[in-house]
Design brief:
It is a single chain. This protein is α+β, with helices and mostly antiparallel strands. It has 5 helices and 3 strands. The longest helix has 17 residues, at 51-67. It is elongated.
Length: 80
């Protein structure tokens, strides 16, 4: 993902729109990412993601993590 500043957006908006067709472009304000531009196709794809699909993804990740020995106790230790 490419990063640009708010100033760059103001100066090169047409170029930013072209770049967003190829990959998302993050916009930074005061060195902090505040927004992302992306193609309408990618936006539509993300909006269409089904909650069930996400649940299946989470189940697959949890299964792989458990198979590799990740437990709730280890996860709690990692987050503290």
């Amino acid at each position: 993902m490419r990063y640009v500043t708010v100033t760059d957006v103001g100066r090169r908006f047409a170029v930013l729109l072209d770049e967003a067709q190829r990959e998302p472009v993050a916009i930074r304000r005061r060195s902090r990412a505040v927004a992302v531009t992306l193609s309408i196709e990618e936006y539509d794809r993300l909006r269409a993601l089904d909650v069930t699909e996400f649940d299946h993804f989470c189940d697959r990740v949890a299964g792989k993590s458990a198979a590799r020995g990740l437990t709730a106790r280890k996860l709690q230790w990692l987050s503290s």
